[in-house]
Specification:
Layout: E1 7-10, E2 17-25, H1 29-36, E3 37-38, E4 53-59, E5 65-74, E6 85-92, H2 94-106, E7 110-111, H3 116-123, H4 129-140, H5 144-154, H6 157-181, H7 192-210, H8 213-221, E8 223-229, H9 235-243, E9 261-267, E10 270-276, H10 286-301, E11 304-310, H11 317-323, E12 331-337, H12 347-353, E13 360-361, H13 370-385, H14 399-418, H15 424-442, H16 448-456
Parallel strand pairs: 1-7, 8-10, 8-11, 11-12, 12-13
Antiparallel strand pairs: 1-2, 2-6, 3-4, 4-5, 5-6, 9-10
Helix pairs in contact: 3-4, 4-5, 5-8, 6-7, 6-15, 7-14, 14-15
Bound molecules: guanosine-5'-triphosphate and magnesium ion.
Length: 462
C-alpha cells in the first residue's frame, strides 16, 4: 500500500540542542546515506550492520565537510515504518540540521509529509489507526495524565476493546445470516430473545467504553477556563497569581484588558488553558465593546468559569449581569477578591444565589486564597468529569473516537428497536453498520481523505 519513495525529515525539534536527528525511511534509505557518509568501517564486508552505531562524517557532492555524525542503519521489517530506516545523529542547530536535510534530498530522498513515518507504520500494518493517533496524543500531551492515556492507547488498549466489540457483533450476526442463506433449516421460530440479550450486552460494552471518555479528552486536549467579572475586580491579577507570572497587564484604570489573554497551567493533572477576559459592562466605546463580545464568547466556550466579584465594592447592576452569564452545563467558581481591603460587598447576596457552591475569598495582591482557588477549581473539574481515577477509565480520548462509538451504539439501538417489528435483514444491516463504523477507529474501514486529515495533524518528522 505504501508508495515506493524514500522519505526524509528532521525528526527532532528545530533548534539548538545536544543532538539532532535526520531520519530516512524507504527502499533507498541505505543507498542514499552511503553516498554521503564517510566512515572507516565502510570497507568492512558486513557494512552496514543492522542497528549498529557508525561514527563518521557527512560530505556533500563537492566533497565539502558537512558534519560529524553517528549513523544507524535499521533494515526492514523490524522498524517503526517496517521499511529500511536510517537515522543520522548530528549536531542540533537549525542550519546544521537543514544542511543535512538538504543533502539527503539531493542524494535522492523526498521530504516527508507531516506524520508520514507514522502513516507508513499504519499502512504497513505495524500499528492500527488508534495506535497512530495515540502517537500523536503522546507528542502533544501537556500533562502526566495525558501521557498515561496516550501510553495506554499506544499499547493497543482501545484497539483490543474495539476489536472485541466487533467480534461480538459478528458472532451475533452469524445465526441471522445463516437464516437468510439456509431458510429451510430455520423453519422454527427464530431465537429472538438470545439476539435481544446479545444486543443489549454489546450496547452495554460500548457504553462502558464511553464512560470517562470526556475526562480522558480533558486530560488530552486541555480544559478552557475563563475568568470573568465586571471591570477592575482583579481578573488579570488573579490570572497572574494563578500562573505565577506577570502575564497580564494590571492597572487601577478599569477597562485595562481589551483582548483575550491566555496562559497555560496544570490543575490536578488537567492541562488548563486559562483565559483572562475584558471586564464586562455597558459601554459606548467601540473598542471596549468588541473586547466585551470576546469575553462573552470565551465565557460561552469555557468548561469552567471563574466568576470574580470585588469585595471592596458594593453589589451593582454590573455584578448582576455577570452573575447570569454561566450556563447550567458549565462548572462554576465564585470568587470574592480584594478581601485585604475594607469589605462593602454583602457575601449573603452570593451565598443565596449559589447555595450549593462554597465561595472562595482571595486577595490577588497579597496572594491570599490562591491555593484555595486552585483546590476549588480542581474539585469542580473532578465533579464535571467524574472523580474516577484514570486507570479505571477507558482509553477513549478523542472526540473522533467518542463520536464513532456513539454512532455505533445508535446503530445497535436501532437494531434492537426494530428486532420484532421489521424483517431480520434490517436488523442485520444495522448491525453491519455498527461493525463498519467501529472499523473507523482501528482504520479497517477508513477512507483516504480521513487518513490524510488525521496524519496532517502530526508534526514533521514523526
Ligand atoms: N487591594 C487589592 N487590590 C487589588 C486586588 N486585585 C487587584 N487589585 C487591584 O485592582 C486593580 C485592577 O486589577 P486588574 O487585575 O487589572 O483588574 P481586572 O479585573 O483585570 O480589570 P480590567 O482588565 O480593567 O477589567 C489594580 O490596581 C490591582 O492592583 C486585591 O486582591 N487587593
Ligand atoms: Mg484585566
Amino acid at each position: 500500500m505504501t508508495d515506493n519513495e524514500t522519505i526524509a525529515a528532521i525528526s527532532t525539534p528545530l533548534g539548538e540542542g545536544g543532538i539532532g536527528i535526520v531520519r530516512l525511511s524507504g527502499p533507498e534509505a541505505f543507498r542514499i546515506v552511503e553516498k554521503i557518509f564517510y566512515c572507516q568501517k565502510k570497507e568492512q564486508p558486513d557494512f552496514p550492520r543492522p542497528r549498529y552505531l557508525y561514527y563518521g562524517h557527512l560530505k556533500d557532492f563537492r566533497s565539502s565537510f558537512i558534519d560529524e555524525v553517528l549513523v544507524s542503519f535499521m533494515p526492514a521489517p523490524h522498524t517503526y515504518t517496517r521499511e529500511d530506516i536510517v537515522e543520522i545523529n548530528c549536531h542540533s542547530g537549525i542550519f546544521a540540521l537543514r544542511s543535512i536535510q538538504k543533502l539527503v534530498l539531493e542524494a535522492g530522498a523526498r521530504t516527508a509529509e507531516p506524520g508520514e513515518f507514522t502513516k507508513r507504520a499504519f499502512l504497513s500494518g505495524r500499528i492500527d489507526l488508534s495506535q497512530a493517533e495515540a502517537v500523536l496524543n503522546m507528542i502533544k500531551a501537556r500533562s502526566e495524565e495525558a501521557v498515561k492515556v496516550a501510553a495506554r492507547g499506544l499499547q493497543g488498549e482501545l484497539l483490543r476493546k474495539v476489536e472485541s466489540a466487533r467480534e461480538q457483533i459478528i458472532s451475533l450476526r452469524a445465526p441471522l445470516e445463516a437464516s437468510f442463506d439456509y431458510p429451510e433449516e430455520f423453519d422454527e421460530e427464530f431465537d429472538y430473545s438470545s439476539l435481544e440479550s446479545g444486543l443489549k450486552e454489546a450496547i452495554g460494552h460500548l457504553e462502558d467504553m464511553l464512560k470517562g471518555a470526556e475526562k480522558n479528552r480533558a486530560y488530552q486536549e486541555g480544559v478552557a477556563v475563563a475568568i470573568i467579572g465586571k471591570p477592575n475586580v482583579g481578573k488579570s491579577s488573579l490570572l497572574n497569581a494563578l500562573l505565577q507570572q506577570q502575564r497580564a497587564i494590571v492597572h487601577e484604570v478599569p477597562g485595562t484588558t481589551r483582548d483575550l489573554l491566555e496562559g497555560y497551567m496544570n490543575l490536578g493533572g488537567y492541562p488548563i488553558k486559562l483565559v483572562d477576559t475584558a471586564g464586562i459592562q455597558k459601554t459606548c466605546d467601540p473598542v471596549e465593546r468588541q473586547g466585551i463580545e470576546l469575553s462573552r464568547s470565551a465565557a460561552g466556550q469555557a468548561r469552567l468559569i471563574i466568576m470574580v466579584f470585588d469585595g471592596s465594592d458594593e453589589w451593582s447592576q454590573a455584578d448582576e449581569e455577570i452573575a447570569v452569564i454561566s450556563r447550567a452545563d458549565q462548572g462554576l467558581i465564585v470568587v470574592i477578591n480584594k478581601t485585604d481591603l475594607e469589605q462593602k460587598l454583602n457575601p449573603e447576596i452570593l451565598r443565596e444565589r449559589y447555595p450549593e457552591l462554597s465561595i472562595v475569598e482571595t486577595s490577588a495582591v497579597k496572594g491570599y486564597g490562591i491555593k484555595e482557588l486552585e483546590a476549588a477549581a480542581t474539585a469542580e473539574l473532578d465533579r464535571i468529569y467524574g472523580a474516577e481515577t484514570i486507570s479505571e477509565s477507558p482509553v477513549v480520548a478523542s472526540i473522533r473516537h467518542e463520536e464513532i462509538i456513539t454512532r455505533a451504539r445508535e446503530y445497535l439501538d436501532n437494531a434492537l428497536a426494530v428486532l420484532r417489528e421489521q424483517p431480520l435483514e434490517i436488523v442485520s444491516m444495522e448491525m453491519q453498520n455498527a461493525w463498519d463504523k467501529l472499523g473507523e477507529i482501528t482504520g479497517d474501514t477508513v477512507n483516504d481523505a480521513l487518513l490524510d486529515k488525521i496524519f496532517s495533524e502530526f508534526c514533521l518528522g514523526k
